[in-house]
Amino acid sequence: MNHKLMAQLLVLFVVTQSIGLFAGNYLVKEQIAVTIVNDDKESVDNSLGLIAWILGTTVVLLALIAFAPAWLFSIVIKAVESLAIFSTAIIVIAPAEPSEIIGYGAALLLVALRIIFSKNLWLRNISSIVATAGAGALIGASLGVLPILVFLILLSAYDFIAVFKTKHMVKLAKGLTGKNLSFTFALPTKEHQFELGTGDMVVPLVFSVGLLAQAQGAFPFPHYLFPSTAILVASLAGLVITLDYASKHKGTPLPALPLQAALMVVVFIVLKLGGF
């Protein structure tokens, strides 16, 4: 096992999920959510809406990679990255309840630093942490547990098909990773720089925040944190296994989400059987 690689993964995972849970807890308590398809958090239509949004975004990105001039693709993708960082930074900062000037100023500063120091890997990882924590917290606070489960299963199936069958996710990854964007985490080692998609951390955070919202109404502190923590541990185990395999088979594209999802679903069933 590559210990440096796993140490980086552990730090990034713990920091991202901790910030995301903190932000998610705030959003749940303040009843802040986003409408995906409808306002019913328990509606599976919202799960299908998220999948449709992901598919549509993928089609647009693949079309840009295939047909747009390199300069146009760079402008569009950088603009999307900047917007994502700005909006998610506001979500992450929100629990501190700063003034609007401070909140927006801090978000703009992070965007500016990313643009100025675009080649800096650690600043990129910081931006990825913020983007992942903010997006995962908001989606998790906007969905009930059942829609999250449906979303998790459908996205895992899509991830498997997109990597092993149609292989368009491999093409998409190649088109994005060379641009040092905050859509992946960089895990550099002496032998190789590994790339981990932010989705592999967003999805477990969504599940974790959804469980946190559900458990808060049934259990006192700190007991209501247990289901969320158990799900994150299962997700981390799936990531470690997948990344360890990838480190021993360099050049082999491997989706992390299917194994993560399987472990999270098993843990969720165990939690329900245990009374959580």
Structure description:
This protein has 276 residues and is mostly helical. The chain has one domain. 73% of the residues lie in helices and 4% in strands. It contains ten helices and two strands, in the order H-H-H-H-H-H-H-E-E-H-H-H. The chain has helices at residues 3-29, 45-67, 70-93, 100-116, 121-142, 145-165, 168-177, 199-216, 226-248, 257-273; strands at 184-188, 193-197. A two-stranded antiparallel sheet has the order 1-2. Helix 3 (70-93) packs across helix 5. The mean pLDDT is 90.
Overall geometric form: globular
> What's the end-to-end separation, in Å?
34 Å
Describe the main β-sheet briefly: 2 strands, antiparallel
Helical fraction: over 70%
Strand content: under 5%
Give, in order, the helices and strands.
Answer: HHHHHHHEEHHH
How many E-type strands? 2
Return the average pLDDT rounded to an integer. 90
Q: Any idea how many domains? A: 1
User: Segments where pLDDT lies below 50 for 5+ residues?
Assistant: none
Summed up, the helix count is 10
Q: Pairing-aware structural class of the strands and helices? A: mainly alpha
Rounded to an integer, what's the Rg over CA atoms? 18 Å
Strand order of the largest sheet: 1-2
The multimeric state of the shown protein is single chain
